[in-house]
Amino acid sequence: MSPKITIGELRSKLMNPETHRSEIEKYLVADPRRSRPFAPALTFNPETVDLGAMNADEETQGQLAFDFTNKIERTNRKRSFQRAINENPARPILYAEGDSWFQFPFFIRELIDNLGEEYLVYDTSRAGDTLKSMLDISNAEYLDTLTELIHVREYNVQGFLFSGAGNDVVGADENNVSYLMGMVKDYDSNKPLEWHLDTEATRERLAFIEDSYRSLLQSVDSRFPFLAFPQLKVYIHGYDYVQVKSLPVKNPSKPFWAVNWTGDPLRAHFFPDNATGSALIRILIDKLNVITKKVCDENPRGVYIDLRGTVLPTQWADELHANDQGFKSASRHFGAALKAAGVTSA
Q: What class has domain 75-340?
């Protein structure tokens, strides 16, 4: 067996853009107790990482690893951005805030990884972020960041990319109770699939998301009046048709960091198979896209980007995230929508 590496040595590997993800996997393991939808939690692998100097219990180690990996991912992106902007200060910029479709730690090249090949993106996304945390006006990082980029650094910001709502549908509340569990009725083969989502909990969740998106656009308007900043459009994407993979039994081939976030609650409601579960989630995804388009159409600053159908059913890494090929396909569509809206690339 190879000798264990220190956390400092692991940090050096993670900070090195030449380090391939396959090299990282052996030093991190899944931490299912801390994992959340759109935020797979990782912890240090005690078989390959020397934890002797940490003097911390497993819970603390898990939190340290989670913070460690996410901070390094964000740091790497900011370093890459700064190098690029130093080389060409006049280059057009996009600002991104969102969940793990924008920032997935290490193991998947998601939307921003791909868009960053063509656009200069300043990104403050966090895996696992919710609409409630991102849009908290009392501590709105996105407004402060936009202010810094536009007014302080005087950058040519051509748009604000936003990814959110996934955690607010398939995530869990403050008591760690699955939202989806409460939104769905027990399976009845004699009822249309739409009927299974006809619940007060579903209506409340969708209304919350609609109000949140509207609040997002209004808050940007309040800080950056549209007549003065017409180029600062807010691009909100809809989610594609994620695939349920763990019905009727749990998926034995899922990645080590994945959790059956859609399959587990649907199994508890007696949904019989992956095809039926995926068809139900498809209806829910459509409802989310209708809301996103509606809110964007109401506000001249809002631009809705429809990603449905861009990822093939075979291009999903788990029940919530596309694999590299799937996200690359979705990113091409995202980029085409930006160009159609007049956003120039590098």
A: alpha beta
